[in-house]
Amino acid sequence: MRALPGLRGPRGPTPGLLPFLCLLAAARPSLADGSDPDSPFTSLPVREEMMAKYSNLSLESHNISLTEHASMPIEKNITLDRPANIQLTCQLTTSRDLNSVNVTWKKGDELLENNYLINETGNILYTQYMFTIINSKQMGSYSCFFQEEKELRGTFHFKVPKLHGRNKPLISYVGDSTVLTCKCEGCFPLNWTWYSSNGSVQVPVGVQKNKCVMNGTYANETSLKITWLLEEDGGSYWCRALFQLGESEEHIELVVLSYLVPLKPFLAIVAEVVLLVTVILLCEKYTQKKQQHSDNEKEFEQIEQLKSDDSNGIENNAPRLRKTESAAQ
Ligand SMILES: *[C@@H]1O[C@H](CO)[C@@H](O)[C@H](O)[C@H]1NC(C)=O
Ligand SMILES: *[C@@H]1O[C@H](CO)[C@@H](O)[C@H](O)[C@H]1NC(C)=O
Ligand SMILES: *[C@@H]1O[C@H](CO)[C@@H](O)[C@H](O)[C@H]1NC(C)=O
Ligand SMILES: *[C@@H]1O[C@H](CO)[C@@H](O)[C@H](O)[C@H]1NC(C)=O
Ligand SMILES: *[C@@H]1O[C@H](CO)[C@@H](O)[C@H](O)[C@H]1NC(C)=O
Ligand SMILES: *[C@@H]1O[C@H](CO)[C@@H](O)[C@H](O)[C@H]1NC(C)=O
Ligand SMILES: *[C@@H]1O[C@H](CO)[C@@H](O)[C@H](O)[C@H]1NC(C)=O
Ligand SMILES: *[C@@H]1O[C@H](CO)[C@@H](O)[C@H](O)[C@H]1NC(C)=O
Ligand SMILES: *[C@@H]1O[C@H](CO)[C@@H](O)[C@H](O)[C@H]1NC(C)=O
């Protein structure tokens, strides 16, 4: 780590290279035009060369703003599914002498020596790191560190898109057909693959007769159609999307019920009704008997009270009984 030099600029290139690079920059003004006019940074020729090489890639620009009083690091998730030019900017607003602030960049725990810029305007210190992500190894976390009396950190997490399946199990019946779907927002996977479980191993879907992978309407979705469901078709399924910069997976649970199972709640309801009717009849009988023995109004009210308490108790218990029964399936 070095203190800020008088001349704000790149940390990477050797001092001898700098005038040469400046010459290059002067000789190639057309390339420098591509940079953001609002940026406080002057372009760096090396980066312009890099950008020219990958100029057909899109530019992803992200920033994090830190203040000296920030107690927590600031983190940002960035979703990326294809190669891109990346421009990361961290800015620190501080009342301190900016020259006493050390700036570093890291990918994970690894120090990034080259290619970042530092600039200051007023009491704001900017640092910018520019690079190109072309493969999955370059995904991960990039952090800027400002070291004054305590260390301040901003982190950019690069991830491939997340898939959306369903978080609840999909429930179907034997003999029916069902469709499992997976999608991701604004993504374009190279391809999709479906897996089912055989014990604890993932087996690619495709060999089984009753399963058919269907192309979605758009590249951002896929479906797996399963016809003539058997009980053994139940279990775990996964869809996996392959992106240029990695892959992403989602789990879907399929529950296949036999037709007896849906009848069970119905039978439970019938049993409840029978029970309820029996209890009411018994109560009625009991009340009539009591009434014959005594005409006391108070007593009658108490029994009336007792009766409604009883039936309430049953109504509260009954649905619970049903639930646990179906959960046990
Ligand atoms: C910044 O780095 C220099 C050199 O490594 C060191 O002497 C200085 O104490 C550091 N400053 C702070 C505030 O950490
Ligand atoms: C720093 O930013 C100012 C304006 O924001 C700009 O004029 C200056 O050229 C920049 N310096 C460097 C070294 O990028
Ligand atoms: C960008 O250009 C490079 C080489 O010029 C080429 O290999 C790559 O396929 C291009 N990418 C796109 C997305 O056009
Ligand atoms: C930082 O990014 C946000 C949007 O992500 C944008 O509105 C803002 O202008 C950016 N700030 C700077 C200093 O680039
Ligand atoms: C970033 O992603 C992680 C894990 O996916 C999540 O826990 C975190 O809340 C996300 N952060 C933001 C700022 O969205
Ligand atoms: C998938 O892509 C289509 C067309 O590009 C779009 O209309 C649709 O909203 C996308 N779906 C998701 C979940 O992003
Ligand atoms: C998906 O694409 C990768 C690379 O192009 C290939 O290795 C893999 O076999 C493909 N998978 C399917 C199911 O087509
Ligand atoms: C599941 O595994 C068993 C033994 O490991 C094997 O005999 C069977 O063919 C497999 N089933 C499928 C559908 O791959
Ligand atoms: C799905 O799409 C791929 C390529 O996009 C194509 O090769 C395949 O024939 C399609 N399958 C179906 C069932 O349409």
TrEMBL record:
Pfam families: I-set. Residues 1-32 form the signal peptide. Residues 290-329 are annotated as: Disordered. Residues 292-310 have a biased composition (Basic and acidic residues). GO terms for cellular component: plasma membrane; synapse. Residues 73-144, 161-241 form the Ig-like domain. Keywords: Cell membrane, Disulfide bond, Glycoprotein, Immunoglobulin domain, Membrane, Phosphoprotein, Repeat, Signal, Synapse, Transmembrane, Transmembrane helix. It is found in: Cell membrane; Synapse. It is a single-pass type I membrane protein. InterPro entries: Ig-like_dom (IPR007110), Ig-like_dom_sf (IPR036179), Ig-like_fold (IPR013783), Ig_I-set (IPR013098), Ig_sub (IPR003599). CDD domains: Ig (cd00096). The keyword Flavoprotein does not apply. The chain crosses the membrane at residues 266-283. Interacts with SLC16A1, SLC16A6 and SLC16A7. This is Embigin.
